[in-house]
Design brief:
The protein has 274 residues and is an alpha/beta fold. It has seven helices and nine strands, in the order αββαββββααααβββα. Strands 1, 2, 3, 4, 5, 6, 7, 8 and 9 form a nine-stranded mixed sheet that branches.
């Protein structure tokens, strides 16, 4: 792992579901199937490199750079930002890596999305979407919110769940913690790195970090920002700020959508069927 990458984490303010919403910090915040197997990128060696395609406007680039540097502190993986050319409104996935996009997705109730494609227990591709409709609001147009959301959604692509989903609890000083006061929840903490070591402790005989593994029918089926296209909601936090959706295509092929909802917005209540 690059020593400069490990220790040159910018001193910026940074932003952030899946098989069980908790109201206290989770001792184990990986997520996976019913048998307890964590979802992870298949790879044959550690540390491995996950590429993230940059489809962001210049105002968002520093936040992606910070998140990539933060998560690269892990002993089992590096995050590399690469040039990409996706249309942000659809943010089509690329097999073997993640794509990160921002756009004005509309008053649909969500601040950020992480969508993850699963084959068996292996992650094959993922996308992060950041909704500038709400990040243009005074409430969210702040470095601490943008850093938190970016960091958290990238953490989901790596295989992490939230440590805590109660917005009113004391901050855990990690971007994998939901909060109303994000100033101290800007970076991963030691528990996040320990969890990644646990998730990626065992090597695989093959890798999903290859573009040849794309599932084109799945990719085409979930490009909509409409929750009705995300499948069924399998989890929601007690305060309604976080949801997890699952769309099952059969034969172990699934797409999960982690949703960070905006608070106090009538459109968010409508889009969630309330």
């Amino acid at each position: 792992m690059n020593t400069i990458t490990r220790f040159a984490v910018p001193l910026l303010l940074i932003l952030g579901g899946v098989i069980g919403f908790a109201v206290v910090a989770q001792a184990d915040h990986s997520w996976g199937n019913a048998a307890g197997d964590p979802y992870h990128w298949a790879r044959t060696a550690n540390p491995f490199t996950l590429k993230l395609g940059d489809n962001l406007t210049s105002t968002w680039d520093p936040y992606l750079a910070t998140a990539a540097a933060d998560w690269s502190v892990s002993s089992v993986l590096d995050v590399s930002v690469v040039a990409s050319g996706k249309y942000p409104k659809t943010c089509r996935p690329t097999a073997g890596r993640g794509e990160v996009c921002n756009a004005k997705y509309g008053a649909n109730g969500w601040l950020g999305l992480a969508q993850i494609w699963i084959s068996g227990i292996h992650i094959t591709q993922g996308t992060v979407k950041l909704n500038d409709t709400y990040f243009n609001w005074a409430t969210y147009n702040k470095p601490e919110w943008k850093n938190l959301v970016m960091c958290q959604e990238v953490g989901h692509l790596l295989g992490l769940d939230h440590q805590d989903e109660n917005m009113g609890n004391a901050n855990l000083d990690t971007c994998m913690d939901y909060t109303n006061t994000p100033a101290s929840n800007q970076h991963p903490n030691s528990h996040d790195y320990a969890m990644l070591e646990d998730i990626y402790a065992h090597l695989d005989s093959s890798t999903t970090l290859q573009q040849s593994l794309a599932s084109k029918p799945q990719a085409a089926s979930v490009e909509s920002d409409d929750p009705r296209e995300w499948g069924r909601e399998i989890r929601r936090s007690a305060d309604g700020r976080a949801s997890l959706y699952e769309r099952d295509f059969g034969n172990g092929q699934k797409v999960f959508t982690h949703v960070f909802w905006v608070t106090g917005d009538e459109n968010s209540r409508f889009s969630r069927g309330r």
